[in-house]
Write a structure and sequence with these properties.
Length: 390
């Protein structure tokens, strides 16, 4: 079937689907609500969540019950009373505590809440876990790991962009295993930026090693503690290591105002880049409980390769992609009272048919965080990854 016929077929299916659906009622956007009292503040937020949140078919939160329980509670509060505003903050925290979206973060405009942290249910759940640990310090990756594990000639660098600091380290281990650490996904943007920057230099060094190391025994991509970032980095990084399209999952979005009004699932894939080198040696992802979002998506993509591995800990569990809600009928929104409801734009399903939102992606070789080992300069997770390349 040629591309034109495929296009006509897609349009035909779309019109058939939409003709069978009831007209979507016009509703106020959350930011357009008049919020003269706390009852209206609640309505703006509740309806924004009802229409924009993408996980209602798998989330265990009963959103209708939330309305019945909290609508009368908010109605009793006074927006002009600081104590009531803080009580409202507590209600928001209770309402959102079970949301499965592990990107979810709720921040407020009210000056009486300026000293209150944003509400992040996934972070609160993580703090309560018996195996909780802090992220590995970036100083371990910048100083200790290169000195103790990388061959002479390794590169490291950092660059500050706005309020963000980007760090990268690259080198070889035993000459034929390539290692690349970066603390955030903004690789493509930094690489294509005008002029030189230290992270760009490290990236170029790593890409040159991919192209010029004759006998690669393995590649280790270290995203421990990496909080995610730009989706464009998926093709930019992994696309240099494959020679054909890699399908690794599916995404879907909201396509209407209905709570369960979803688009069909569409394939998620990595596209080979120009002059890519097909790597058949093991590609190992090092990820941990603080690997979030793009770190998880990249780990899932690598695990889909026949030579892909994942060593470390179960990841954070926030793998729904995010983008501005002008592209989809869902995701992030604001109201007069709420600065931002930060929530996923899409739902992601891995190639095995499972959705790992809220639970994290499990490693095939689990190596738990070992604070005592890290304090003396050894890295058991890295050493386990190295065994796969020998």
């Amino acid at each position: 079937m040629n591309q034109f016929n495929k296009y006509i077929l897609v349009l035909f299916v779309f019109f058939i689907m939409t003709s069978c659906r009831k007209e979507i009622p016009e509703i106020n956007r959350p930011e357009d609500y008049v919020e003269g009292n706390f009852s209206e503040v609640f309505d703006a937020y509740w309806n924004g969540m009802n229409n924009n949140y993408v996980f209602w078919d798998i989330d265990t939160t009963n959103w209708d019950r939330v309305y019945k329980q909290y609508k009368p509670l908010f109605a009793k509060l006074n927006l002009a009373d600081s104590i009531d505003v803080r009580t409202g903050y507590t209600y928001f925290k209770e309402m959102t505590s079970g949301l499965i979206d592990s990107h979810y973060d709720l921040s407020f405009n009210d000056s009486w809440l300026a000293d209150s942290s944003s509400i992040n249910p996934a972070y609160q759940r993580k703090l309560a876990k018996p195996d909780y640990h802090d992220p590995i310090s970036v100083l371990h990756f910048y100083y200790t790991l290169p000195d103790n594990y990388l061959d002479e000639g390794w590169k490291r660098g950092f660059v500050n962009v706005g309020n963000s600091q980007y760090v990268a380290v690259a080198g070889t281990i035993d000459q034929h295993t390539l290692y690349f650490y970066f603390n955030s996904f903004n690789l493509k943007s930094l690489y294509e930026a005008d002029g030189d920057n230290a992270v760009k230099t490290v990236e170029q060094y790593f890409f040159d090693m991919i192209n010029n190391t004759p006998d690669i025994k393995g590649i280790i991509l270290d995203v421990r503690g990496n909080g995610g970032g730009a989706l464009a980095d998926l093709n930019f990084l992994l696309g240099r290591m494959i020679d054909k399209r890699l399908d690794f999952g599916f995404t879907r979005s909201k396509q209407g105002n209905g709570r369960l009004d979803y688009s069909p699932w569409t394939p998620a894939f990595v596209t080979p880049q120009d002059s890519a080198r097909n790597i058949t040696a093991p590609i190992v992802m090092l990820a941990d409980a603080w690997s979030v979002s793009m770190s998880e998506i990249t780990t899932m993509a690598v695990k889909s390769l026949p030579n892909g591995h994942f060593v470390g800990e179960r990841t954070w569990g926030g793998n729904g992609p995010l983008t501005a809600n002008k592209f989809y009928n869902g995701g992030q929104f604001s109201t007069g009272f709420i600065n931002q409801t930060y929530t996923s734009s899409l739902m992601f399903k891995y190639r095995d048919g499972k959705i790992y939102e809220g639970i994290g992606f499990p490693p095939d070789i689990e190596v738990k965080y070992d604070e005592a080992a890290l304090e003396v300069g050894t890295d058991p997770q890295l050493e386990a990854a190295l065994k796969l390349t020998q």
